[in-house]
Structures are given as structure tokens and as C-alpha cells.
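Team,

Forwarding the record for the chain on the shared tracking sheet. I've put the sequence and predicted structure together so nobody has to dig through attachments.
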Amino acid sequence: MAIMKNLLFRGKWVAITAATILLALLLAVLSPVFLSVSNIQGVLIQASVTGIMAMGMTFIILTSGIDISVGAILYFTAALFAKLVEISTPIPLAFGAAILCASLLGTLNGFLVVTFSMSPLITTLATYTMYRGMAIHLTSAQNIPVPRAFGFLGNGKIYGIPVPILLFALIFFIGLYLLGKTRFGIYVMALGNSVEAARESNLPVKKITMGAYFLGGITTSISALILLARVGGLQSGMGIGIEFTVIAAVVLGGTKLSGGSGTIIGSAVGAIFLVLIDNGLNLIQASPYIYDIVKGTVLLTAVIVDKVSIERQKKQLHLQKALRIQGVGLEV
């Protein structure tokens, strides 16, 4: 009971979960189609791509970093897989090569950020251009179809459950375990709270940072292969803008952009919430031109709430510090 109470009233993900439930109830009233099994499945399948990427991005932002290049890593991964398959490389080998390369690209981001003390935003903005350029050079910006058998990853089912949803659930539980039950998760939180304190405590700052970006790369590669399987082939515009949707999901889920505080469950629900907005606007036949306006407004609101929350915490800490000093003075 105590654990449940803690989750309900102190969890960072409660606000976005409540908002998601309210939005779902509103959509159910506005459109009876919303509650159909096919529509719910569609929402979860769409959320799986950004949701899996959000799992990795959560670790990166928790270290007070950010990775703008995930959209380009997604495109490069899909391009590499499609190109390897096109030249008759066995699918398992192409699959492994794509995941390995994406992991290395993510790790490279972490290496550059921590080794040269570079801004994560500027660094990954530069690598975004580099990775996307590499993919375009590899494929000459051509659309490349993939074998129909590979479509099972994006459109297949196991015991009636779509494969993307199963992968989303699997990555979710792995993320929960890594963040909540391992030393790596504790170190990630500590690094986000204070890099200087982490260094003074002899924590392996470089390894932790590179590990977080590695997770960002590997989760992006999984999402890339799911997306590639769903659409049936490489498309030149694949992955453009998805980095902002992923970051929005993480921030909406309660992870602070300054790092050190956040949850995996919040990021997962944040991804579902964003897809619900698209789904709801589609069901009520709203103009497609307002989709980005609505999602941008929601994200801006979340950032403002996050900023206000941080300022309130700072004021509370200063007040507690002042009270302790006064208490010591009275005792003297």
C-alpha cells in the first residue's frame, strides 16, 4: 500500500498519466471509434517507435545531456540495413550490422561530449548533419524496398499481439530495470544532479555518459528497423523531425531537461500521449496543419511547468538552508 501511495502521489509520471487518461476519455466521448481494438492497437503501434527511442533518450537527458542526432541515426540505420539487404546480405547479418553501427554512432556522440567537454546540443546537431549525410551518400537518397518477410517486425503478431507493441513492452521493462535496479542507473541520476560531485566521488563519468548515449543509439536502431518494416522500405524523408517528438515525450513524462530526475514510465506514457493527440485530431477530422501547433503548445507548457517546478525547489532548498543556519545560530 505504501509503495502504491508513493507511486500515485510522488511519481514524476503521475501528471502525464492523468492527462493521458483524461484525453482518452475525451476522445472516447467525441468518437466511438476511439475505443475500438484496432484503433487502440494502432495508437500503441505508432507510439512504439517514438516510445522505444524515448527510453534511450531518457538516460541521455538524465545525465543532463541531449541527442539531436537520433533522427539521423534512425535514417542511417534504416539506410544501412536496406542497402545491405539489397546486395543480398543475409537479413540476420544486416540486422546485427545496423544495430551495431547505430550503437557506435550513439557512443561517438557521448565520447565527443564528455572527452572534449562540448555542448551536447551543438555536438549532436553537428553529428546529425554528418550521420544524415553519410546515409544519403550510402543510398544516393534513393528509396529502397526491403523483403516482405522482414515486414513481420513491423506488422506481424505473436499470440495476437503486434510485434512492435511487444518490443515496446520489452524495452520498457529493460529500461525500468536499468534505471531502478542497477548501479548504472544510480550513477546516471548522480551525474545529472551534479557532474562536479560525481567526479569528486570518483564515479566513472566518461563511461556513464558514453553508456547513456550508447543506449540512445541502440534503442534508435530498434525503432528504425520497426519503422522500416512497417513502411516496407527506405524513404528519403525517414526520421526527419522525430528527434523533437522523442524529446517532447521524455520532457512531458516528467524528466527534467537539467538532468538528475525522471522516469522510464513517464517517457513511455509521454510517447503514447503525443500519439493520442495525433489520433484524436485525426478522429475529429481536424486540419492536419494544426497538429504541430497543438503538440508544440503542449510541449511548451510542459517546459514552463518544469521550469517553475525547478525554481520552486530551489526556493524551498534555500529556505530550508536558511532555517538550519538560524537554528544553529540560536543553539550557539
